[in-house]
Write a structure and sequence with these properties.
By secondary structure, this protein is α+β, with helices and mostly antiparallel strands. It has eleven helices and nine strands. It starts with 7 loop residues before the first helix and ends in a 6-residue tail after the last helix.
């Protein structure tokens, strides 16, 4: 039985959503399908150059229906771009074809009518069209469920020496990008150590925590650089992905914890945390654990997994909750400083602190918006050949946020911040009276 036209729009939505969330696994990829009746299963996404290859090995093939009259040409694998898939959906809707494998705009890799009683096959597909392709398994027989083991390897051959490059065409420079940023963060750590040593009399515990966060970020980038480098050369991470996940987890928890502590003014404004501030930390840390678990599942299962969309939604939801949670301490500090400015007679000092926290609140909002929205938009609209630009944009935004945080909250020679004369105190008091209440 063919796929009915009325379901073609649903298939289009599922497939295009998968393409949008695709992580470009771009490595030797293995998966298992067990009694799966899905009509369309995207398996992998890769950006090919004019000298690309797809190696496909499928074994232990079994069908739920052993009827010899089945049209097995309606079950198989094909490659398609996003534009060609939209054309396929149009053809299905207009009744020109009854199965995606029959379309002339897709590149058929293998159809099951070539099995001839075998339960496995190997095939190599040469790619001469430079574009981003998705490897898709299609089953146009609605009552037939398929079980099999699939192993796919997509790579490009380098022009000079014919060496295999298992990273997608738009991500082949990522090892160098991550390594460069790791060196930059190590440089920042060295600068920060010098600052702490130079102003050691006014250093607080929060400043050492900042150093730890920068070092964790540098190590995380080094692990990611090695992870991508091994995938580029061999198609496998060789254990570097485990280190990457570990340090990514530590970096994520420490960064959000640092933002919460800065927002509360811990260490440099007060030596303790209030109960509500501790509650925020107790919320953020478990959420980061869940976010990292979701990220691992997303990376390791790929878009073909049954629970992939669920874990993707969990990750996005948890990430948003973490970002919102860390805003509360900053807002509380702003309100406390406004109240203190009216009562303790130190208007100028409190105005400086208030301005600092206001600016930090705005910068953090901009950082979250850029890294969660703008970077994703860049990844979605940018040509597959320049996917690395979204990674560079995200890392530059993170670097700018780290530098801003360190500069604004660095150890000061005078605490709090500056020595204020009477004229400045009066001017600050007048400004506080004239200002409207700061609202979100």
């Amino acid at each position: 039985m063919a796929i009915c036209p009325c379901s073609s729009r649903c298939l289009a939505l599922i497939f295009l959503t998968t393409l949008s969330f695709s992580v470009c696994l771009a490595e030797i990829h293995s998966s298992e399908l067990r009694s799966d009746g899905q009509p369309i299963i995207p398996l992998d996404v890769f950006g090919f150059t004019h000298n690309g290859r797809l190696e496909l090995h499928v074994s232990q093939i079994s069908l739920s229906n052993s009827d010899p009259d089945l049209d097995l040409s309606k079950i198989g694998f094909f490659l398609c771009t996003r534009d060609s898939w939209l054309h396929v959906i149009q053809q299905l809707g207009e009744g020109e074809i009854t199965c995606a494998l029959k379309s002339k705009v897709v590149k058929t890799v293998y159809s099951f009518d070539g099995l001839q009683g075998n339960t496995s096959f190997d095939t190599v597909c040469q790619m001469t069209d430079a574009d981003q392709f998705t490897l898709v398994f299609a089953n146009c027989l609605q009552k037939v469920k398929v079980s099999m083991n699939v192993r796919s390897a997509m790579y490009n051959l380098e022009d000079k020496n014919g060496r295999r490059d298992y990273l997608s065409a738009g991500k082949t420079v990522l090892p160098r990008v991550y390594f460069l940023f790791a060196l930059i963060y190590l440089g920042l750590a060295a600068i920060w150590v010098r600052v702490l040593h130079k102003k050691r009399l006014t250093v607080f515990r929060i400043h050492f925590f900042m150093l730890a966060v920068v070092l964790l970020k540098a190590v995380n980038l080094l692990c990611e650089a090695e992870d991508k480098s091994y995938i580029k050369r061999t198609g496998s991470a060789h254990g570097w992905d485990v280190l990457f996940y570990i340090f990514s987890f530590l970096k994520g928890i420490s960064l959000f914890t640092l933002i919460v502590l800065i927002g509360t003014g811990w260490s440099f404004l007060k030596p303790y945390l209030q109960d509500k501030e501790k509650t925020v930390l107790m919320i953020v840390i478990p959420l980061q654990v869940v976010a990292n678990i979701a990220q691992i599942v997303i990376d390791e299962t790929g878009p073909y997994g049954h629970d992939w969309f669920t874990w993707k939604q969990v990750f996005l939801l948890v990430d948003i909750l973490c970002c919102c949670a860390v805003l509360f301490p900053i807002v509380w500090s702003i309100k406390n400083l406004r109240e203190a400015a009216r009562t303790d007679g130190k208007a100028a000092v409190n105005l400086m602190k208030l301005t600092l926290f206001r600016h930090y609140y705005v910068v953090f909002i901009c950082y979250i918006y850029f890294t969660r929205v703008v970077v994703y938009a860049l990844e979605t609209i940018t040509s597959y050949r320049y996917l690395w630009t979204s990674t560079v944009a995200g890392e530059l935004a993170t670097l700018a946020f780290f530098v801003y945080t360190g500069y604004k909250f660095k150890p000061e020679a005078h605490n709090p911040y500056f020595v204020i004369d009477d004229d400045e105190e009066e001017a600050a008091a007048e400004q506080l009276k004239l200002e409207d209440e700061f609202e979100l």
